[in-house]
Amino acid sequence: VQLQAFGGGLVQAGGSLSVSCRVSGLIVANLCVGWFRQAPGMEREFVAAITWDSGDTLDTDSLKDRFAIARDSAKKTVYLQMNSLKEDDTAVYYCAARYNFAKTGYAYWGQGTLVTVSS
Fold it and tell me: Residue 64 and residue 73: Cα distance in Å, rounded?
């Protein structure tokens, strides 16, 4: 599986941004695509994940009221919609994939896209 994340940029605090992840390669029913982020000086953290077939999602409790993951199977793209952005959301956002639904153990990674939230 290959992944390409794009759509990052500069946004003001309180604004919204959607980042995208284009998926290619071996896409099967039990494929799970997740979003992670890594802020400067911090460890990478799980944000959300979605299953390719059913669209079931795994979310992070502290983010689920502002962030939403979705996928468009026809476009082979997974989206992360981010609302009410805060400066603390500044990070490189990565999409990743694994087979079977989980928050950890992702084997395939995209290159990341930088989201910067300004005050």
Answer: 22
Q: What share of the chain is helix, strand, coil (3-state, %, to 5)?
A: 5, 55, 45
The answer to whether 44 and 106 are in contact (CB under 8 A) is: no
Minimal CA–CA distance to 100: which of 29, 46, 47, 45?
Answer: 29
CB 36 within 8 A of CB 93: yes
Strand 77-82 and strand 91-99: pairing?
A: unpaired
Per-residue pLDDT of the chain (119 residues; tens, 9 = 90+): 999 999 999 999 999 999 999 999 988 888 999 999 999 999 999 999 999 999 999 999 999 999 999 999 999 999 999 999 999 999 999 999 999 999 999 999 999 999 999 99
Residue 88's nearest CA partner among 40, 48, 47, 49 is 40
